[in-house]
Amino acid sequence: MAYYDDNYSVGEDDEIHYTSGTSDVDVNSSDYNDDDDDYDDSDEDDMKSESAVIATGSDTSNKSDDEQDDSDGHTTDASDIELWSGTSWKPDSFDYNGTLRLSNHISSTFPKHPTSIDIFRLFLTPEIATYIVDQSNLYRTQNNLTQQSPMTEDDFYSLLRFLYYSSTVPLPSKSDYWTSYCRQPIVADSITRNRIDYLLSILHLNDNTTELDKGEKIEPLINLFNERCRIVAEPEAYISIDEQMIGYKGKTAPKSFRQYMPNKPTKRGFKVWAKCGVSGFVYEMKLYRGSKEIILNKNPTTSLNRTLRSTTTTNNNDEIEQRQTNVKEYGLSGVVVLDFLKHIPIGSRIFVDNYFSSFRLIQKMTDLGYGFTCTLRSNRISQCPVPSDKLMKKKPRGYYESYLSDDERCIIVAWKDNKRVLLGSNCVGEEPLFMIKRWNKNEGNHVQVKAPQIVTYYNKYMGGVDTLDMMISLHPIPFRSKKWYTRIIWRIFDLIIINSWILLNQIRGTRKEINGPGNWRKFRLFHFKTEVAKFLLQKPQLLQIQFATLSSSTVKKQSLPILSSNDDYNDENNPPKKLKREYKSAVEKTLRFDGNNHFPKFIEAKNASRCKNEKCKQKTYWYCPKCDVHLCLTSQRNCFNEYHVNS
Fold first, then answer.
1. Are 21 and 432 in contact (CB under 8 A)?
2. Mutual orientation of helices 153-168 and 525-535 as an angle, nearest 10°?
3. Cα 623 to Cα 602: distance, rounded to the nearest angstrom
């Protein structure tokens, strides 16, 4: 046993560990919940569980079972001492060091300087678009919704463009995009309001006549999305597994799908398990459909063939029996973690919160060859003699104790922040100590608190799903629907955009370039989503071009009007802001080299502007309105032509 306390007296046999240090890791908000509701098979108990992340938040947890312990705060059974008799920390080596990048078989044929559309088409392939169109038209026929013509691929891309554009330029209602007072030409000039409403009414993903349960209305798209994520990107070394909520307050969804989690920001809706890297890139997602579905664990198929898809079966009896054994051993949430291991390389480091974790799961992950770090609940630590909440309340912030398993491969650390926090790991221990900044409520300022290494390690790599939640909240598709599964479709469409943007920024960030040297950090998610919406203005035959051909082909594009085209409109309350500085690297290649509507314009300004052509340092009054850059156009220098020709 090892522990540290500035003001705590220890015996001769006790060992004090102290190492000062600093950490750039900021510890975020959390609750400390020791409830055991995860191990109950009822859906209601599963819904009320709450994840715990280490932080400075107020004490909102339920009373711990440990407060019923002896007055000394420790349990001292002989069996406990034998199980936690380790004296020397001997963690296993986990040597997988992958980073987010394109998979090898894709990167070998992928453009060196990919555009937004190159990446987007990796996730939403023409085959997937064709499948959605076919299933929607099948649903149209089965339900006799023949008021308008069938959905075409052009219609699907128009619908997708409308959804993406509406998420970046939100209005109160769908119909507002066609009204005279806030008309959006990019939408209104390309498709009618009635057509959008009709496409939304027939949007469908699976044949109703072959459905085995309600979940198959959405499972095909989830499985196809997961497959594309596995094919496109190599997994990162640090993976976090956590739950998400998709907001929904309707009553048409199956009861076992609808969850109520009062401690979550989104309290009502669908619960989704997500596996993410530190970057926020989601590698896999699963829809929670009730505890019985976790035990059955249907085998997903990613076939685009409707007949093959209808043959999806459950595991055989032996596999179901094994899963039932795992549920008894690791809990329902622990089985979720084990299911996610299928496509995670051996040697990766995995992070979960106390909703999923247990000491038995740490041992299991050690045997399987995965690094594992987690927060823990006091009733899932195999009788580890940790100090009780009652005893820890008397200790100063920064006090900790650590306990090693008898095989010396796993460690549990009890650390005092606002209250006791339990952490477990098989790859990181308590040393060295770090100084972290915490908020002192009594003094009204920040103070430095000592924390074991496991605390900073956990907070540094656990936030992948939280990062994803933040990005989803920036520009979500805003529309509601009477069909319960539509909300999940919108979430997958948003995840396609987010994954594409993260991967594109990773490629550009690694190479420090955007179509050449330049300002790669300024390409925001908003810009990416708008760029994709602009591309979806293309004719359907151009949209079928594969990404390899797309990057080398001449594609005609239209400019994107952000506001109404009414020149008489003037908002006195919102004066125009100062124009941003021009960057030649901010012009997408598909726009720069499309050979369409690039006309020079002479600017009557007091001072000339720098030419944005490569290797030209002259100043000019000539300007390309479409690319939004200044370019030389004289008898001696024709930078305007050179800039728009792909050499």
1. yes
2. 150
3. 6
- Cβ 272 vs Cβ 243: under 8 Å: yes
More confident residue, 79 or 630: 630
Whether this prediction's pTM lies above 0.85 is answered by no
Cα gap 155→581, rounded to integer Å: 37
Sign of the C-alpha dihedral computed for residues 420, 421, 427 and 433 taken in this order: negative
| Residue 144, phi-psi category: left (phi > 0), alpha (psi -120 to 50), beta (remainder) | left
**Residue 483 · residue 171 · CB < 8 Å:** no
Between helix 153-168 and helix 126-142 the angle, nearest 10°, is: 100
Strands 434-440 and 445-451 come out as antiparallel
Measured from the Cβ of residue 399, the count of other Cβ atoms closer than 10 Å reads 22
d(Cα 213, Cα 39) in Å, to the nearest integer? 25
Place of tokens 């690694």: 510
262-293 residue pLDDT tens? 988 999 999 999 999 999 999 999 999 887 76
Does residue 199 contact residue 483 with C-beta atoms inside 8 Å? no
Under 8 Å between Cβ of 247 and 268: yes
Under a CB-based contact definition with an 8 Å cutoff, are residues 618 and 647 in contact?
no
- Return the pLDDT at 571: 40
Q: Is 481 helix (H, G, I), strand (E, B) or coil?
A: coil
Residue 314 has pLDDT above 70, yes or no: no
Asked whether the beta carbons of 25 and 460 are under 8 A apart, the reply is yes
Tokens standing for residue 608: 């000339």
Quickly list H helices, 351-485: 359-368, 389-392, 453-461, 464-474
Residue spans of the domains in the chain: they are 2-93+351-465, 115-209+484-548, 584-643
- Name residue, tokens 């349990």: 75
Check if the beta carbon of residue 584 is closer than 8 Å to that of residue 518.
yes
Q: 206-234, pLDDT tens digit by residue?
A: 888 877 778 889 999 999 999 999 999 99
Q: How far is CA 75 from the centre of its chain?
A: 41
Within 10 A of 9 (CB to CB), how many other CB atoms are there? 6
CB atoms < 10 A from the CB of 503, how many? 23
Q: Where are the alpha helices (DSSP H) in 176-250?
A: 185-188, 193-202, 219-232
Structure tokens at 633: 């156009």
Report d(CA 647, CA 624) in Å as an integer: 19
Angle among Cα 82, 88, 91 to the nearest 5 degrees reads: 100
At 463, is the secondary structure helix, strand, or coil?
A: coil
Radius of gyration over every alpha carbon of the chain, rounded to an integer in angstroms = 28
What residues does 277 pair with on adjacent strands? 239
Give the Cα separation of 177 and 164 in Å (integer): 13
Q: What is the DSSP annotation of 382-403?
A: TT--PPPHHHHTTSPTT-EEEE
CA pseudo-torsion sign 260, 265, 270, 272: negative
The Cα 406–Cα 87 span in angstroms is 8
- Could you tell me if 241 and 273 are in contact, meaning their C-beta atoms sit under 8 angstroms apart? yes
Is 379 in contact with 60 (CB distance < 8 Å)? Answer: no
